[in-house]
Amino acid sequence: MAAHPLPERGDRIMVMGVLNVTPDSFSDGGRYADLDAAVAHAHEMVAEGADLIDVGGESTRPGAHRVAADEEARRVLPVISRLAAEGIAVSVDTYRAAVAELAIASGAQVVNDVSGGLGDPDMARVVRDSGCPWILMHWRGHSDRMAELAQYEDVVADVRTELSARVEDALKAGVSSDQLALDPGLGFAKRAEHNWALLANLDALTGLGLPVLLGASRKSFLGSLLTDAGGAVRASDEREDATTALTTYAALKGAWGVRVHRVRPSVDAALVVGAIGRAR
Ligand code: PMM
After folding, report:
1. Does ligand 1 have an atom closer than 6 angstroms to the CB of 27?
2. Neighbours of 149 (CB within 10 A)
3. Averaged pLDDT, 240-256
């Protein structure tokens, strides 16, 4: 099938709304496990301007339990089928080729792969055969090993080199460069200082010439920045303003899009940066 690139808009960067259909995701876990509730939440995000709904069935939160592929499919496929039938653009957040293949058959238009292709050797074939866009996130291993894998010589250079290798592998497997996008994988085998360094040097990734997605929404490096007077880490649903600040930054730095839990503030921020850019 012919490759089709990631969608873009002329007025602002893209905003991907997170729809975790898992009982244990760290920020919205359990709330959208029920099909109707999940679909209703997707509608809310679309009404607020989401361009893409990212449906995931396995939490990637540090220390989260992995689920079997059939359980992951059982969680995501009904939601994807319903949303796709209603004309809503969907990405599937999975590193499993079998789940991605079923999701694409159910109407998913994008594969959001937190393993950058490392999690399943068959993913490149599925992506190549479908022609759909493939977001390659920087990843070093599953959640249970993330802390020990957060060792870098130079985090910016290392992430750039490792993501470039993922791109090479994809191209060798016959995937078209038009299909690819990159993501630094904030919080995945990265301590707070690694995330800040990657953000400060985002040009190192955008300079690779592929669309870049940032997933900073509500992550713990924001919680530890925003400690209150007593030193307590800010709760995940109170990290929205910081998330919006990073959407503004992503838009200014030329990212393709952001992956967020609350859509409207990021859409607003993206529109503001877009309007300033057009007035130049
Ligand atoms: N983060 C999470 C899940 N999927 N996908 C991409 N491309 N980038 C990310 O940063 C990313 C992701 C984990 O966050 P969640 O548990 O809040 O969904």
Report:
1. yes
2. 14
3. 98
Regarding the beta carbon of 91 and ligand 1, being less than 6 Å apart is answered no
**Contact predicate 221/176, CB 8 Å:** no
**DSSP secondary structure, 40-81, as one string:** HHHHHHHHTT-SEEEEESS--STTPPP--HHHHHHHHHHHHH
User: 3 burial class (0-12, 13-18, 19+ CB within 10 angstroms)?
Assistant: middle
Q: Whose CA is nearest to atom 13 of ligand 1?
A: 60
d(CA 95, CA 114) in angstroms, rounded, equals 6
pLDDT digits over 16-58, tens only? 999 999 876 545 555 666 899 999 999 999 999 999 999 999 9
In one-letter notation, the amino acid at residue 28 is D
Q: Which positions are catalytic?
A: 219, 259
Q: Locate 248 and state its tokens.
A: 């503004």
7: which DSSP letter? P
Q: What is the DSSP code (8-state) at residue 119?
A: S
Q: Whose C-alpha lies nearest to ligand 1, atom 8?
A: 215
For residue 20, how far is its CA from the centre of ligand 1 (angstroms)?
Answer: 10
What is the tens place of the pLDDT at every residue in 75-92? 999 999 999 999 999 999
